[in-house]
């Protein structure tokens, strides 16, 4: 059996999915809505030093997006479009490597600096997902494959640029919560924090209606910045319905992660999202997940805990949360729910 979906597609001229890739779906999975508009945040206004009123309004808009959606489109972010195009091209070139070459970077453990594989975790997945991936820990130490030529250099530049954007966003989130701008950065040790770069490849699928690129899930960490090629496939869950996301040109798709929900004591939610596949062409997406340092224990911020809002989550070390996530299938907020404090525990607060 081929180790990647891309290898499977290229090995056979098949018209139906192997049974292991058939994803069981629920009635609510088909509840789509195109009527709602995803929030748009203008990064240039959020960081403007020239107009305090505009900046205050942008911070308020950011807070509303985090509270109501856990997701937004980020425009005017300052990352060069040429760099975004270059990393998409370079990522495609990596997946064009021979299967044997990609296996050199397979990795075994969640904290391995480089991991290349398929599905999510083939050891526990009951159905395999129509997705190949490359996962790289790019901060606090930078790790990348040594092939194809020039790939590592592009990855490093892109990682640095997105980290700058993420830091500014976290300052805005802190301000929107009524906290000091550097609150999240300092409390979460973001300067030495984790940045995980994930490249997802979704090859054309002969039966997309019964397959899944990635199932409904939330991300670990504080927030994720995502770009993709011209093919759409991301859907976010809002008020029980799935919203297809059609991003603006040269924008980032930003979603909050589980650790932002823990830190804000549930004030801001990590958003459930999924990746759909198509039969026409290959979709590729690149996400950078920004989180605390591995040794940081994440618990609700004391400033956001009160008698009327008791702590909703137990503290957990970030590295332990990553390992916990790898033990189970991806399923909505199943991992976050394992550190959620029960109602009876809250009543005893």
TrEMBL record:
Protein name stated in the entry: 2-oxoglutarate and Fe(II)-dependent oxygenase superfamily protein
Superkingdom of the organism of origin: Eukaryota
Domain Fe2OG dioxygenase: 192-292
InterPro entries documented for this protein: DIOX_N (IPR026992), IPNS-like_FE2OG_OXY (IPR044861), IPNS-like_sf (IPR027443), Oxoglu/Fe-dep_dioxygenase_dom (IPR005123), Plant_2OG-oxidoreductases (IPR050295)
Listed GO MF terms: L-ascorbic acid binding; metal ion binding; oxidoreductase activity
Record keywords: Iron, Metal-binding, Oxidoreductase, Vitamin C
Species this chain originates from: Quillaja saponaria
Family per record: Belongs to the iron/ascorbate-dependent oxidoreductase family.
